[in-house]
Structure formats: C-alpha cells, structure tokens
Amino acid sequence: MLGVDRNRLTIGKDIYYPFSVEMHYFRVDKRHWSVCFERIKRAGFRIISTAVPWNLHQDKNKDIDFNGFQDPRKDLIVFLELAREFGFKVILRPGPWISGQWPNGGIPDFVLADQSLLARDAKGETVHLMEMVNVPGGKLVSYLHPNFQHYLKNYMKNLIETTKNYIHPRGPVFLIEFDFETSFCHRTKPLEADYNDYVTGTVYPMYLENKYADIKNLNAAWHEKHKSFAEAQPPRDLTGADFKDMPKLMDWFQFKEWYLSEFLNGMEELFRSYTVLPMFFRSLYFRNEHPLPAFALKTAHEEEHLVGASVFPDGTAFDLMQKARYMRTMTDFAWAPSFISGSMTTNRSESEKMFPITDGRRRYFVAAGLAGGFKGLNHYMFINREYWYGGPVDQDGTIGSGFEIIKRLNMAIPKLEINLLEPDNSLAAAFYRPYQWISDLPHPEKLGYINRLLTESFNGVCRDFTRLRFDYGVGDIDFPARLEKFGTVLVPVAEFMSEAAQKNIIAL
C-alpha cells in the first residue's frame, strides 16, 4: 500500500521521511553508479529520483533500448536493479518533456519532424522553446494530437513492459511523474499555445459543447453568432479586451487547464492498464511573483496523487516561501519534488569561482523551505552533471561541499519531528486565479490595473506580513474548503469575478 501518513511516505509496511535526491543515471558513467549510490546512502537518503529521456532511449530509427545494448547510458534496467540491491525506493520521471537542460527536453527529433503535431501560437507559428546553457530547447508539441499520442504511447508501452517488474508492488519504483511542470513547457500566456488545428477544430469545440450543450447558450455568453460549436474559435487578438470579452477569455483559459489535465490523465490510465500500481505526482508551475500555479492540473484520483512545487534559483526567497505557503494550504502534503541543490552553468569552474554554492546558502534555502511549510524535499541535483555545479557529490562519486550539511539535516529530521509541526492558521491571503491569467493580457485601459492588483496589492501585503513576522497561508478562492480553517482570509478583488467565487468568499 502506498500513501502519506503524518507527512511521511508509506510504502508497504515501511515508513519513509520524504527527503530524496536527484541522480540522472544517463549523466553518470555506469562504472560510478555504485559509488554514487554509496554516497547517497551515507548521506542518510533512502529514496532516489531520476528522469528518463525519451530521445535517448528511442533513436532516429525508432528503435527502443532500455538495456544499454549499444550505449551504457541507456541501461535503465541495471540502474533500477542496482537501486533495489542498495535498498533504495525510486521516483521515475519518464517525460515526455523532462526539461533539465537536455536536448529538446527529451522529445525525439523524429517526433518534432512531424509538422502536424507541433503546437501553434495564435498567429499559427510553431512555438520554439528557449535554449538554455547552449542546449537546444526544441519545439512545443500538441499534447493530444493523434500523431503525438501514437508516438508517445508506443514508447510508453515499451517502457512499462520493460520496467514493470521494477514498479510497485514488484519493485522499487513507487512514484511516477509524467511530463514536468506541465504548462505548455512554461508557455502560459493566453496567445502562446495551443492553436494547433486539431485543438481548435476538434478538441476545443468538443469541450465547448460539453460545457454549453446548446450553441444558443454559447452565443449568449460570448455575444457572438455561431451555427455550430465547430465555428467557435478561441481568441486570437486580445488588443482592447473588455469586460464583455470575459466569458470567451475564461473559456479559453479554463480549456487549457482541462486540456493539460486530460493529457496527464491519459498517461496515468495507460500505466494502470498494465496492472502496475505506483502513485503518481504532478509538479505545478509557478511564474515568479505569481502566488498561484499557472494551472491547477486536476485529477479524478486525488487519493492516488501527490502534488509538488519545484524550487529553483531563478526566483527569490519570497517566491520560495510563497510556494511553500501555497502547498501547505492547498494540499495535505507540502512537497518540493525539485528543490535547489546547485545551479546550472555553461562554465563550471568560472561559476564555482564567481558564484560559489556555500554551506550558508544551502542552509538558508533549506531552512526557508521548511519554515514556509514544506514537509519534504528532493535535492536537485545531488549528483552533479553536465551544465550543473554545486551538487554535494560529483559524477565520479567525489564528495564536495554541502554533503555534511545535508547529511546532518537528514540525521536531525526524525529528532526535530518536522513532519508533526503545524502552522498558525490565524491568517491567510487568497487569490482568484483568473486574475493571474488576465494580468498577462496586453494592457488595455479597463484591465491594466489587474497586474498591479497582483504584484503590488497581493504580493505587497504578503511581504508586509513577512516583515511583521506573521505566519500566513496562501490559497485559491476557487477551493474554499482549504480556507475554512483560517480565522481571517484576505482576498483582493477587481470589478469582475465569477458568481461561484463570490459565493465562496461569502461562505467564508
């Protein structure tokens, strides 16, 4: 049985504190796996996490290899077997998009060569992903396009067949994440994605019909005249957007959230069909200065899921604390599946000289995360890799700075009983997610203040709470049950809000 009990992971009859490390087997020479595992164990960890890059394991000829027949980097099976021998439990992150400064984020070139399955922006252009540390980002795919689903499911079925004896209850893999911070690869603005013809011509009309039932209802809401749902198109030019445009805009925003959740649901159901029984988790993407995740990523199997928030060095200490406060308020288990341990770089020696990852810096980030409310962390990266520095252990197993600090933390966790600490629930600040979406619009006269409501009013008040040393939660007004425990809830409002959200505020 898998689950969470008092902020600890239960795997069968065993209890695990939710502190783990990231090690990418394909970025460490196979002959060093054992010594890296020994270092991880010595530091007090019992759980390891790794990504699985699709474009490494399936080549341009579409041949799939998880046994390292041609390349030892591909030997996922030996890695999992070795993890079992060392007594580790494993978190698997098989993509399709793994990010991690890996070419195309893991999407194979032959997939991206199929123009029909590429995501499009509102102008019909392909969506190019950012190059990071000289690694090509590739292009954004259209998640539910039949061609992409064909390629992806063929690969995933091979992965499941090959690894099923290593997945719970048969093996060490107990937790799986599909994709990474699912959010159109961080393309969250309204006109950035996804305007693929299949999405706008098939999936979106189906969604609208399911919501409105009769085209007359849609026409009344949108103030437009359509004969069928197939004619109803998402907004493509937001210049001059006004209050009357809100229903159409909200439908598009909410569709995108539903679309991403459907994609993840489909991948998880595929795994379940093979009678393997891991838990799944979804990592939420937060833009800096935004208190709520870009998309909620809802699931029909809440009891079988964990939800996490990643913490990387591109944000501020305030962003870190806000994520922790959100997670502790909106979930039963506040967890960071990727928590800063080092930083990416194009020149390791130069970065180590100019921007050293000191013990004081590590201590500060971990302390801030725990103080904000995180109950579990996955140290990313614990084992260094290319384009990364500051991990406590090098790729050949050499112990570096930070190792002793993290080891001492692991020794202290059971004694400190961090898992049992409870926050003060006197005060919370809640936000209305559509305001975040609206803040990304070109700033017309009537809606331009929404961005200030977010960055100055909401975040300003939260910063004041911090200066006054008030403990507080951060919540989403669309989930009022999570806010009922607070004595006072502050909610900034604009001139528009859904009737349901207004009722939620009144009920509080």
Helices, strands, pairings?
Blueprint: E1 2-5, E2 8-11, E3 14-16, E4 19-22, H1 33-42, E5 47-51, H2 54-57, H3 76-86, E6 89-95, H4 109-112, H5 146-163, E7 173-178, H6 197-212, H7 215-222, H8 246-272, E8 279-284, E9 305-309, H9 317-330, E10 335-340, E11 343-344, H10 348-354, H11 359-372, E12 376-380, E13 388-389, H12 403-416, E14 427-431, H13 433-438, H14 450-467, E15 473-476, E16 488-490, H15 499-507
Parallel strand pairs: 4-5, 4-12, 5-6, 6-7, 7-8, 8-9, 10-12, 14-15, 14-16
Antiparallel strand pairs: 1-2, 2-3, 11-13
Describe the structure.
The chain is α/β, with parallel strands linked by helices. Helix content is 35%, strand content 14%. The chain has helices at 33-42, 54-57, 76-86, 109-112, 146-163, 197-212, 215-222, 246-272, 317-330, 348-354, 359-372, 403-416, 433-438, 450-467, 499-507; strands at 2-5, 8-11, 14-16, 19-22, 47-51, 89-95, 173-178, 279-284, 305-309, 335-340, 343-344, 376-380, 388-389, 427-431, 473-476, 488-490. It has an 8-stranded parallel beta sheet with strand order 9-8-7-6-5-4-12-10. Helix 1 (33-42) packs parallel to helix 3 (76-86). It is globular.
Quick summary of this structure?
This protein is α/β, with parallel strands linked by helices.
State the main characteristics.
single chain; 508 residues; alpha/beta; TIM Barrel; eight-stranded parallel beta sheet; three-stranded antiparallel beta sheet; 16 strands
